[in-house]
Amino acid sequence: MSSIPSLSTRPPSSRPRRKVGPVKIISLLTLIVTTFLMLLPLFFMVMTSLKSKKEMLKFPPTFLPESWQWSNYTEIFDTLQFGTLYKNSLIIAVLSVIGTLISSALVAYGFARYKGKGNKIWFMLLLSTMMLPYPAIMIPQFILFSKMNWIDTFLPLIVPAFFGSAYNIFLLRQFFTTLPEEMFDAGRIDGCGELRMWRQIALPLSGPALATVAIFAFIYSWNDLLTPVLYLSSSDKFTLPVGMASLTSSRFRIPPWHLLMVASVLAMLPIVTLFAVAQKQFVEGIVLTGIK
Amino acid sequence: MKKNRKTFGTLFAASALLLTTLAGCSGGKSVEDVASPGSNSSSGGKGDKVTITYYTIDSEDRTFVEKLIPDFEKEHPNIKVKMEKAPYEQFDSKLQTLIAGNKSPDITSHYGYGGFAEYYNKGMLMDLTDLMQETGFKAEDYNIPEHLMDIYKVKDHTYGIPLNMYVTLMMYNKDMFDAAKLSYPPSDYEDKSWTFDKMVEDAKKMTVHSDDITKTQYGVDFTWSERDMRPLYFGADPYSADTWTNGGVPSETHFDSPEVIAAYHKFFDLIFKDKVSPNTEWSKSVAGQNGDPFVAGKIGMSVGGSWIMAGSNDFPFKVGVAAVPWGGNDKVRSPLFVDPLLILKDSKHPKEAMEFIKFLLTTEVQEKSIELSGGNPPVNTKAAETYYKHFEGVDPEDVKKVYEGAVKYGYESFNHLIVHYSQINDMFINELQPVETGHKTLEEVMGTIQKKVTEIIKR
């Protein structure tokens, strides 16, 4: 009852006014300028995707297209089997994300929760695998998958994700160690098994970290060029990066930059969408795990 | 919690299902593929079908071969050709991996960074001498000049059969010549008036220096072959003569000799003394990292590989082709870029591979390939007549003269003939960069280059 008169008697001027100091103005200006600079290449990419082939050769380059070639966006489907490339990349990336999430979270949970003998050594060993460059394992891995008769299938691109990734395990382990021990004790008292604690306590509490890992895994798989080049031979199994690389592969022709930019704009969409959807969780994940 | 459990379960089940499906797709070998090694180096008995793999770059000017395969398979019902391809940058990595993984392709070319000599010295190539005899291959049947066949011979053994031949030529911007009121350069290699000095003279008349980058233009861009080969243009050979007969391993190099340094000086004088050629920074700012400033219409004459002609229909100015001017070497004026077809040592079907090579070299297929590839120059001299007419706005007579002169005064590009060439080339780019930017003199860097070349060759 008393709250109503107090509200009505509040003078309009008492509303806290935000003070805009010079520091704030400078920081805002810096942010605007930096945002503009960061967006400039993106803008240039979109504009280039709408230019004609002849306009690409002009110097100085034009900023906006002289004539807007919207047909470039349909031409890419004639030049490359763009739909197929897109579909293949999506299948591989989505399955890789699922694989990475399941395997890395399980291993990371183990490293975070169990303090057994040699725990640290195993963890260091795991981390040291991050120092192995891909070319060092490229040929042995190819021989292995070749013996399994997996060449020219998606399997060599997906299955390794189901066996964990050192970087993501490290990232998730850092997160899992911050979870309060008491929750797991409570779970144990209620008769919860270890796997169930992982599934029903650790995972639901790790949304931000899992979102971060999902984005990293997706981007890695989406951009990977060398692995699909090595394992895939049939054109109908190629991924987006392989198809896009073919546009600039001739040493003897002027590359169709306008089409490459169309492909880049379209290839960017899933990553932008994923980031937009998981942005809140992603930023939180980076803050909580202390990983940049 | 229940929801989470359900989601987790669904995800796991979905991925397991998809993996199983994909595993199913991997399948076993098809009947055609099972032409077991050892039993099928011959054409095989009736009904035996063998699959050969043709490995190439994944770009339109290479993958067009796929369109020729049905005709070949119709002619050779026992042979199936499969195409394996990779982007340019990953070409060598994939080839090495395929060989190591016992999945060696049968036919390829040195389309990546590594040249013929690199492949030969790694023992990757099959000696084709006996195979050519066995299958009745004669170069003259395919109108391939004998001296082109010699390029890929080592100690009288043939390891590669030429397929395409790019030459070095001069392309010029007719609009810039007209504006400077200059007569066009000749396409005839025997025209004695066409010399390096005359070219510099013409270039000076077309060069405009301005603070406004859009107004700056240069008379000539003389990118004559790779950096280590350039002294040859003025008659100084930096590699010992045995290099060309022993598989590309020079016993001596002379990069610090006064003749070689003097030759390099003449090239750099175009940029720093005569100021008629652009430096690398300008070229990159106008045309991008790997672009050509000639295409932007800012260069009067451009000396380079004949592949530049393939895009000439799109240039926003009129173009012509001319002979590379005489620079002091009476024998060599045009580096050739002859791409051979190679059969790899681990090929399980060399005879069938040879049949496919023969098919690709026939006049009819070579002529067809020009159109399908968008202007690949055939090695077959009969098919070359069609090639000369391929470029709109460029006089076919000029293209013919330039090609014939280039072959007469040609020398195969060093990048195909010298061992560890990709490393030599990278080293040259790095070491000469301070000279190209004007921070060091040639005398300062050539000693180091000589030392490093020697080290690389010994690897």
UniProtKB/TrEMBL annotation, chain A:
CDD domains named in the record: TM_PBP2
Membrane topology of the entry: Multi-pass membrane protein
Entry keywords, A to Z: Cell membrane, Membrane, Transmembrane, Transmembrane helix, Transport
One example of a Gene Ontology biological process annotation: transmembrane transport
ABC transmembrane type-1 domain sequence ranges: 86-278
GO (cellular component) term, any one: plasma membrane
Subcellular location, record wording: Cell membrane
InterPro entries on file: MetI-like, MetI-like_sf
Domain of life of the organism encoding this protein: Bacteria
Pfam families: BPD_transp_1
Major subcellular site: membrane
Transmembrane segments: 25-47, 90-109, 121-144, 150-170, 201-222, 257-278
PROSITE patterns attached to this UniProt entry: ABC_TM1
Family per similarity comment: Belongs to the binding-protein-dependent transport system permease family.
Entry protein name: Carbohydrate ABC transporter permease
Source organism: Paenibacillus agri
Automatic annotation (TrEMBL), chain B:
Pfam families, per database record: SBP_bac_1 (PF01547)
Record carries keyword Membrane: yes
Record flagged with keyword Chaperone: no
Endpoints of the signal sequence: 1-25
Keywords: Cell membrane, Lipoprotein, Membrane, Palmitate, Signal
Stated name of the protein: Sugar ABC transporter substrate-binding protein
